[in-house]
UniProtKB/TrEMBL annotation:
<keyword id="KW-0547">Nucleotide-binding</keyword>
<dbReference type="InterPro" id="IPR003959">
    <property type="entry name" value="ATPase_AAA_core"/>
</dbReference>
<keyword id="KW-0406">Ion transport</keyword>
<dbReference type="InterPro" id="IPR003439">
    <property type="entry name" value="ABC_transporter-like_ATP-bd"/>
</dbReference>
<dbReference type="InterPro" id="IPR038729">
    <property type="entry name" value="Rad50/SbcC_AAA"/>
</dbReference>
<dbReference type="InterPro" id="IPR027417">
    <property type="entry name" value="P-loop_NTPase"/>
</dbReference>
<dbReference type="GO" id="GO:0006826">
    <property type="term" value="P:iron ion transport"/>
</dbReference>
<protein>
    <submittedName>
        <fullName>AAA family ATPase</fullName>
    </submittedName>
</protein>
<keyword id="KW-0813">Transport</keyword>
<dbReference type="Pfam" id="PF13476">
    <property type="entry name" value="AAA_23"/>
</dbReference>
<keyword id="KW-0408">Iron</keyword>
<dbReference type="Pfam" id="PF13304">
    <property type="entry name" value="AAA_21"/>
</dbReference>
<dbReference type="GO" id="GO:0006302">
    <property type="term" value="P:double-strand break repair"/>
</dbReference>
<dbReference type="GO" id="GO:0005524">
    <property type="term" value="F:ATP binding"/>
</dbReference>
<feature type="domain" description="ABC transporter">
    <location>
        <begin position="8"/>
        <end position="231"/>
    </location>
</feature>
<keyword id="KW-0067">ATP-binding</keyword>
<dbReference type="GO" id="GO:0016887">
    <property type="term" value="F:ATP hydrolysis activity"/>
</dbReference>
Length: 244
């Protein structure tokens, strides 16, 4: 493990009515402890998971558009107001790792192509050819298999977005290997990824950011209920008059 704790510095908090301090889960944040090599952030859309992950990336010295410390490419490295307002406690400190944002993966792949024009050897780290020449899921796994092997801190924002359920299971195996020498913090909606057994799950909620058991997450409960009784669910959802 590397990152042990995150503190919100109250003296650096900006306007409470403006982003990002107006997000309920962030407003209720004092400190967050990392006790496991794998930590998941889960919670409703818009609950603040990406915002906090980006703030951690910013404070860790990673490119906030995605990538590692040395990926100073053209995608706007957004300023992070929350990043300026948190302090990270490390033991030991690492500057190695990667920040993976699903929405900036395309730009990252183009960046790799650009460097490879000068030095084709660069492709070796990504499975031997351009990430653009593979499907979204294939290129994502190529990145993971070839580049995510050094000890460090890996911040992943919805990595399941590109992956079929079968590939998510393969991805679990990669997480398991990587966590032996690294730390991962993963924002996810995937009931498969959340099921990784050695992880701590934090739930982002109106009342703050709290640990939660896998079986108590909405992701698990809704998926389970839907699969167990699809007809009932669909009937409720599609047949009943909407309440306005
Ligand atoms: N740059 C921004 N400026 C203003 N508001 C923003 C900005 N980025 C995000 N928000 C808002 O902040 C809230 C939290 O967004 P965030 O992306 O952190 O949520 P999330 O939990 O990662 O959601 P999802 O599960 O949909 O990815 C949302 O209400 C969003 O609309």
């Amino acid at each position: 493990m590397y990152l042990r704790e995150l503190h919100l510095l109250s003296e650096r908090v900006g306007r409470p009515s403006a982003y990002p301090f107006n997000i309920p889960a962030i407003r209720g944040l004092d400190k967050l402890s990392f006790r496991s090599n794998v930590t998941f952030f889960t919670g409703e859309n818009g609950s603040g998971k990406s915002t906090l992950l980006e703030a951690i990336a910013y404070q860790s010295g990673f490119h906030t558009g995605g990538g590692g410390r040395n990926n100073a490419y053209e995608l706007a490295s957004s300023e992070s107001h929350l990043g300026e307002a948190i302090r990270l406690s490390w033991l030991p400190k690492t500057s190695q790792g990667f920040f993976l944002r699903a929405e900036s993966f395309y730009s990252f792949a183009s960046h790799v192509d650009e460097i490879a024009r000068e030095d084709p050897d660069v492709y070796r780290a990504y499975g031997g050819r351009s990430l653009h020449e593979r499907s979204h899921g294939e290129s994502f796994l190529a990145l993971f298999e070839n580049r995510f092997n050094r000890p460090g801190l890996y911040l992943l924002d919805e990595p399941e977005a590109a992956l079929s359920p079968a590939r998510q299971l393969i991805f679990l195996r990669h997480i398991h290997e990587l966590q032996r020498k690294s730390q991962l913090i993963v924002a996810t909606h995937s009931p498969i990824l959340l099921g990784y057994p050695h992880a701590e799950i934090y739930h982002f909620h109106e009342s703050g950011i709290k640990p939660i058991r896998y079986e108590d997450t909405e992701t698990y409960q809704i998926t389970r209920r839907f699969l167990e009784n699809r007809a009932f669910y669909l009937n409720e959802l599609l047949e009943e008059e909407p309440e306005f």
